[in-house]
Task: inverse folding
């Protein structure tokens, strides 16, 4: 593999000029067919070998870009740029427009100028994803809305920072989506670090009156208490390794005005980390990881021995194919374990909306369900259940079905106790669950068998369609596998009961805890 790509070399020279250290005897940037660029080992490497270090002030985030300060803290907040990723998108657009006077001028040329993610697919390709967890999470409309209602008005308010003759080419919706996708596929969470002499302060939020020390990380010093390389929490998180809703266009969209809501990340932590974003990822194959260090640097270290010539892998958190496709534009396929078999992504999941459980349970009860559903949503807050490749029913789904079937007196007791019913299985709950799984399967336009046939002759499928079919087949296999498991367990019990020999069915079994 040729590790002397001209762009890679220019990039490494720029990094070194910014006081990054790169062990060029150990690693090189290579063009790897099917992966874009990646990093490969140039010699056998031991575990805990440092591949490169990046000064903290070289990460690109709302803390390090000088734009928020120039724009003004109050105005930044007034335009809503402190929430979600919109502020970082604007910083990136602005920094790139500064050319060589931007500190990151050597970083932008190596970032991708286009993406294959569903955000950029046409309607025909998107239709192939019908039924999957991808469609509702792309968030293109919300991103567009943020562009129109936040970014553009902010740009137009400051012609001194955003010259009007550059707006039509630099601050466009297309480039907004490009930056959003660069963040979605390549950012990390880099926690705030403190400037010399700064008092401990939990407020890392941009827009604080006294934020200059937060924003100006050129004077940043150590955050040694957190940055112990041997500590267990020293890993710099790949933003995209977070839960699906934690970042990106969806955080931008989903975040409400409640800044105290710690389910959401601090947008100022979201950072582009040059070079660290050059590593590709594969299911369960991480061989290097980014660590905090007590010398104001982020350190990429091997976590396994690596042989000369091997690609060096980071982790993207092993998400399901639906998320891999949406965020990165690729999918992972490896060997599946029992009860599934064949090839797929072991981290795949399928989402089941609670309304399907309500619909199925309603066929088994004469009780009114609305007040129970309202109570459930208040108490348990689960309106979507998730099944993985272990094909086990989520206990919460079983609890909801039980709640809906409770006789009135029992329901009154449940309410009084304020505790959801135990997730105990029996043949009625199994019948409801099977009904739910079948209904969910019907939400896809094709069957498992049809998709398997399509993939058997991949040459007929375009790239996007092949990925879409793999994603939806992965979800359907979970549904079909779970259905099969229930049929095996509960049809046996039902027939035993019929023969009058049953002891188990009436006593019930607990769903997965
Ligand atoms: C963090 S970047 C890694 C560097 C990237 N390959 C490049 O050329 O700049 C993530 C992107 O790399 C590619 N990638 C990473 N892992 C991959 C894999 N296992 N298979 C295919 N593409 C992968 C995808 O395009 C993804 O969006």
Result:
């Amino acid at each position: 593999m040729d590790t002397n790509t001209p762009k890679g070399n220019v990039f490494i020279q720029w990094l070194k000029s910014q006081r990054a250290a790169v062990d060029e005897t150990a690693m090189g940037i290579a063009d790897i067919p099917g992966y874009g660029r990646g990093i490969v080992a140039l010699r056998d490497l031991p575990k805990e070998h440092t591949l490169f270090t990046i000064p903290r002030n070289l990460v690109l985030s709302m803390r390090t870009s000088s734009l928020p300060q120039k724009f003004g803290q109050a105005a930044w907040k007034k335009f809503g740029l402190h929430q979600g990723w919109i502020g970082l998108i604007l910083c990136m657009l602005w920094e790139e427009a500064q050319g060589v006077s931007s500190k990151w001028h050597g970083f932008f040329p190596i970032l991708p100028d286009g993406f294959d993610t569903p955000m950029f697919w046409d309607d025909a390709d998107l239709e192939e994803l019908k039924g999957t967890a991808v469609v509702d999470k792309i968030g293109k409309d919300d991103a567009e809305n943020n562009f129109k209602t936040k970014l553009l008005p902010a740009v137009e308010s400051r012609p001194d920072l955003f010259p009007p003759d550059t707006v039509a080419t630099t601050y466009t919706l297309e480039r907004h989506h490009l930056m959003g996708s660069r963040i979605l596929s390549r950012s990390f969470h880099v926690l705030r670090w403190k400037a010399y002499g700064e008092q401990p302060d939990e407020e890392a939020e941009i827009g604080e009156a006294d934020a200059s020390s937060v924003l100006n990380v050129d004077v940043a010093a150590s955050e040694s208490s957190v940055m112990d390389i041997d500590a267990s929490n020293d890993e710099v998180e790949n933003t995209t390794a977070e839960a699906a809703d934690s970042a990106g266009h969806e955080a931008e969209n989903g975040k409400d005005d409640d800044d105290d809501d710690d389910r959401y990340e601090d947008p100022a932590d979201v950072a582009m980390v040059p070079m660290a974003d050059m590593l590709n990822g594969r299911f369960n194959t991480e061989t290097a990881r980014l660590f905090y260090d007590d010398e104001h640097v982020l350190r990429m270290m091997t976590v396994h021995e690596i042989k000369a010539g091997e690609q060096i892998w980071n982790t993207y958190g092993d998400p399901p194919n639906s998320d891999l496709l949406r965020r990165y534009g690729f999918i992972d396929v490896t060997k599946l374990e029992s009860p599934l078999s064949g090839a797929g992504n072991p981290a795949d999941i399928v989402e089941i909306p609670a309304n399907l459980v309500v619909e199925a349970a309603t066929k088994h009860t004469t009780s009114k369900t609305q007040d129970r559903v309202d109570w459930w949503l208040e108490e348990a807050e689960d309106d979507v259940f998730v099944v993985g490749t272990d094909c086990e029913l989520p206990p919460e789904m079983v609890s909801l079905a039980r709640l809906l079937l409770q006789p009135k007196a029992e329901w009154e007791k449940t309410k009084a106790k304020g505790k959801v019913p135990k997730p105990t299985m029996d043949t009625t709950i199994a019948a409801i669950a099977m009904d739910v799984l079948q209904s969910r399967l019907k939400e896809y336009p094709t069957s498992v068998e049809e998709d398997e046939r399509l993939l058997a002759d991949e040459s007929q499928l375009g790239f996007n369609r092949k990925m879409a079919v793999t994603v939806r087949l992965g979800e359907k296999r979970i549904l079909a596998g779970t259905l099969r498991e229930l049929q095996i367990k509960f049809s046996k019990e039902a027939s035993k009961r019929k023969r009058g020999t049953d002891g188990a069915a009436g006593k019930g079994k607990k769903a997965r805890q």
Remarks:
- The first strand starts at residue 21 and ends at 22.
- Confidence is low (pLDDT under 50) at residues 200-233, 240-263, 502-506.
- The chain has two domains: 56-328, 334-510.
- Residues 34-38, 185-186, 277-278, 280-282, 328-330 surround S-adenosylmethionine (CB under 6 Å).
